[in-house]
Amino acid sequence: MRRRRLIWHVVPHFLIIAALSTAVAAWFADRAIRGFHIDRVAENLAVQNRFLQDLLPADPAAADAGPALAAAIDAGRRAAPGTRVTVIAPDGRVLADSTADPAHMQPHQGRPEVAAALRGNPGRDMRLSDTTGRSTLYLALPLRAGDRVTAVLRTAASIEEMEQVLADLQRRIVLHGIAVVAIAIVVAFLLSSRVLRPLAELERGAARFAAGDLSHRVPVPDAREISAVAEAMNRMAEQLRERIDAIETQRAEVETLLASLGEGVVAVGADERVLYANGQAADLLNTGAAEARGHDLREAIRHPELQEAVLKAMRSGEPVEAGVVIRGDREIYLQGRAVPLRDAGGQPRGAVVVLNDLTRIHRLMVMRRDFVANVSHELKTPLTSIGGFVETLLDPDPPPADEQRRFLGIVLRQVHRLQSLVDDLLGLARIEQQAEQGTIETAPAAARELIDEAVETCRQLATDRGVGIDVEAPEELTARVDAGRIGRAIVNLLDNAIKHSPEGARVVVASRDAGPDLEFSVTDRGCGIEPRHLPRLFERFYRVDKARSRREGGTGLGLAIVKHIVHAHGGQVAVESRPGEGSRFSFRIPKAGPPVGQA
Ligand code: ADP
């Protein structure tokens, strides 16, 4: 509906009131003035009548009354020049008239004032005169002789002037009325604009509030009613702002909380569209958190098991769990728990899915299982061998003495193997424990000395294999380390390098300054390692060539021990290798020792 401005609701009423009051004033003025004037004229006529009554003969219709009649009329004319005097016989005939010739006049008994006087009463009438053609007031009196009406004396005066005065007055009243209406319109405009200005401010303020500008304040006018509305609006805006601030703060808190969670969280509305997804959920589902919002559940979560869990939770009103394995560059194990959402009235509003990345736990479980299997396997081989030879030696028919010695030699080698396996396992467990508890003990040590000692340890093996060792280590480099452990790490790398080098080859053991770190490296020109093995090389019991490792007396724990020693020092291990060309194993540790909290 098209709405009119408030002023157009006011002005027509003002106009009607002004016009009506002008018309009523004009009507009353007309009536009052007309009544007063006519009464005055009538009084004059009555005086005139009484005066003439005395002058007229008793029976003006008598044949001899002519001169007396004429004298009376003449006296009347002189006494009141503007007054017309007429004497009418009982039969209506005009006997005398001060203005016209009675011979040309119509009988007058039909005139209302004359008719009344003929009946014996004074008569009065006001009308246009047939004779003069003017608006006239007539007053008629019966003239009596005893009970008989002998004639009617009628005086008349024009009220034309009065009509003109009244017409003039009415014109003026109308002109004044128009002026009043015009003033009323101007006053209405002025008043309404005065009243409307604060209303317009309220309207503008309400529009700004609606547009979200709640810091705006509506000016408070003097008028009490409007000032109350303005103050109420300002209070409302203030409260709204406080509430919105509180809601925003709450939302920011919840978003921070959700963003800081390790779990992925996705909220889905009853229309199956995503309301919210935190960063973790976006990462796990491989979608953008912002892009996911507003999208259909099936677009944002592309795993049918999770979609089904959400829909089922929404349908049943019960929590539903689902597990998904996402196979990409790496496998991700996801556990999803969909919980239905309800509003304050208990009505279903959608669901929240909490996603847990179980990949690490899964990998740890697999690693533990593999570790137990590996340890059992590693223990079983030497134990079986020892058991077999001891049984043979205990046989009632034992083998010859030199055989027995050979068997005992084998048993001893297996015992040594078991021993080094147990030593490595214990060493690994201890370094892990110390790294975890931060109890690793460090002291300043010279890199060169650590290398020299390691080379000394491996000297015999190198000589046996015909492999040369070159040392490239400046004298001055030092670092805070657990010297025994770092020496062990270098020995492990050097031992591997020698074992994998052909006879006559050379192995380089080096150390160098790497900014805040100290780098140790062992480079060989041996068989090298295929790239597919490199990511897993530092895992416990991971071997490239199992048979060769066992033959060489390796436990498969050497590189795992290196990695854990380096990690305990806050460092990193690295390997570069090309099959057929050789390998370079290196590690870096902070010169200042393990970072605080780590050792
Ligand atoms: P192992 O006791 O079997 O030597 P490690 O953990 O020390 O166990 O090494 C793991 C595997 O890495 C070894 O079995 C070997 O196949 C491979 N490897 C280690 N060092 C070298 C190297 N310098 N050149 C070639 N292969 C190596």
According to CATH, the homologous superfamily of the largest domain is PAS domain
- The CATH class assignment of the largest domain is Alpha Beta
For the biggest sheet, the summary is: 5 strands, antiparallel
Low-confidence segments, given as residue ranges, are none
- Give the integer mean of the pLDDT values: 88
Radius of gyration: 65 Å
CATH architecture of the largest domain: 2-Layer Sandwich
Cα distance, first to last residue?
80 Å
Count of domain modules:
4
Summarize this structure briefly:
By secondary structure, the chain is an alpha+beta fold. The protein contains 15 helices and 17 strands.
Overview of the molecule:
The chain is α+β, with helices and mostly antiparallel strands and 599 residues long. The chain folds into four domains: 158 residues, PAS domain (Beta-Lactamase), CATH 3.30.450; 96 residues, Beta-Lactamase; 69 residues, Signal transduction histidine kinase, dimerisation/phosphotransfer (DHp) domain (Helix Hairpins, Orthogonal Bundle), CATH 1.10.287.130; 154 residues, Histidine kinase-like ATPase, C-terminal domain (Heat Shock Protein 90). Helices cover 52% and strands 21% of the residues. The strands form four sheets. A five-stranded antiparallel sheet has the order 2-1-5-4-3. The chain is rod-shaped. The mean pLDDT is 88. The structure holds adenosine-5'-diphosphate (ADP). The site of adenosine-5'-diphosphate has 22 residues, from helix 13 and helix 15.
